[in-house]
Design a protein that fits this description.
The complex is a heterodimer of chains A (116) and B (111). By secondary structure, chain A is mainly β. Chain A has no helices and eleven strands. In chain A, 0% of the residues lie in helices and 55% in strands. In chain A, strands 2, 4, 5, 6, 9, 10 and 11 form a seven-stranded mixed β-sheet that branches. Chain A has a four-stranded antiparallel β-sheet with strand order 1-3-8-7, with no helix packed on it. In chain A, 34% of the residues are buried. In chain B, strands 2, 4, 5, 9, 10 and 11 form a six-stranded mixed β-sheet that branches. Chain B has a five-stranded antiparallel β-sheet with strand order 1-3-8-7-6, with no helix packed on it. Classes of the chains: A mainly beta (116), B mainly beta (111).
Chain lengths: 116, 111
């Protein structure tokens, strides 16, 4: 199984809502990532988990809260988002055993988030 | 700060020709470069990785070169097909963190 799955595919939420994005992989990878991608822009790294511990937080606002319950799952909890947070949110995973910077990344299909 | 640039936002070529995409980097010497393909509304898909001590890497119709003197990587698709139309992203490792991506080049192959 070389797939990273993400749910939901699409999400529309108001600025006062609380929602969560989910990501799952069964490749035995030990590093997992959240990226944000706006239209016609490259993916921007948000968070990196290595062996279920948060190793990188790229100065992301606290209204985004990541969680790694186990080595296969990664969540992104959303609260009090702004319309400018509307974007494609991508999850990725990599082997993570030789340092995350050396890894090829496997991406999920993304969640298209719209904040009204 | 480290910068990675893909010098064409868009590239249009005819089917059967070779597409050449360019990735330049400054203020850094990456140990390797990666190339990904992204289709609209989908996540990027890994294509090729080339290390600094490798001049060239091939996979089927794809070829990547890495010139550390010019600080440049070239990505070639030979005998291009309409199905190759997509956005191609180059990426490299940044010290202390994970990959950073260039803005991408959108390739359109017309039949």
């Amino acid at each position: 199984d070389t797939e990273v799955t993400q749910t939901p595919k699409h999400l529309v939420m108001g600025m006062t809502n609380k929602k969560s994005l989910k990501c799952e992989q069964h490749m035995g990878h030990r590093a997992m990532y959240w990226y944000k991608q706006k239209a016609k822009k490259p993916p921007e790294l948000m968070f990196v988990y290595s062996y279920e511990k948060l190793s990188i937080n790229e100065s992301v606002p606290s209204r985004f809260s990541p969680e790694c319950p186990n080595s296969s799952l990664l969540n992104l909890h959303l609260h009090a988002l702004q319309p400018e947070d509307s974007a494609l949110y991508l999850c990725a995973s990599s082997q993570g055993t030789s340092g995350v910077v050396l890894d090829t990344q496997y991406f999920g299909p993304g969640t298209r988030l719209t904040v009204l | 700060s480290q910068k990675i640039e893909q010098n064409s936002e868009a590239l249009n070529i005819q089917e059967g020709k070779t597409a050449t995409l360019t990735c330049n980097y400054t203020n850094y010497s990456p140990a390797y470069l990666q190339w990904y393909r992204q289709d609209p509304g989908r996540g990027p898909v890994f294509l090729l990785l080339i290390r600094e001590n490798e001049k060239e890497k091939r996979k089927e119709r794809l070829k990547v070169t890495f010139d550390t003197t010019l600080k440049q990587s070239l990505f070639h698709i030979t005998a291009s097909q309409p199905a190759d139309s997509a956005t191609y992203l180059c990426a490299f490792n940044q010290a202390g963190t994970a990959l950073i991506f260039g803005k991408g080049t959108t390739l359109s192959v017309s039949s």
